[in-house]
Amino acid sequence: MPYVNIKVTDLGVTRQQKAELIARVTQALQDVLDKDPASTFVVIDEVNTDNWGSGGEQVSERRKRLGL
């Protein structure tokens, strides 16, 4: 029973993109490890950019600094 947890920032990931991630990860586990898709779980967590850091800086602050 594989369990995959994908974490992304909450910046514009669409419902369709999440559905595609779930489908492709499930297919990869079936193809590579011969896992049954019915018992494969994929969870996508969307994290606010205030709660996501890179290079010692919040992503929200980095985006402001870069004008994004």
TrEMBL record:
<protein>
    <recommendedName>
        <fullName>2-hydroxymuconate tautomerase</fullName>
        <ecNumber>5.3.2.6</ecNumber>
    </recommendedName>
</protein>
<dbReference type="InterPro" id="IPR018191">
    <property type="entry name" value="4-OT"/>
</dbReference>
<comment type="subunit">
    <text>Homohexamer.</text>
</comment>
<keyword id="KW-0058">Aromatic hydrocarbons catabolism</keyword>
<feature type="domain" description="4-oxalocrotonate tautomerase-like">
    <location>
        <begin position="2"/>
        <end position="61"/>
    </location>
</feature>
<comment type="function">
    <text>Catalyzes the ketonization of 2-hydroxymuconate stereoselectively to yield 2-oxo-3-hexenedioate.</text>
</comment>
<comment type="similarity">
    <text>Belongs to the 4-oxalocrotonate tautomerase family.</text>
</comment>
<dbReference type="InterPro" id="IPR004370">
    <property type="entry name" value="4-OT-like_dom"/>
</dbReference>
<keyword id="KW-0413">Isomerase</keyword>
<dbReference type="InterPro" id="IPR014347">
    <property type="entry name" value="Tautomerase/MIF_sf"/>
</dbReference>
<dbReference type="Pfam" id="PF01361">
    <property type="entry name" value="Tautomerase"/>
</dbReference>
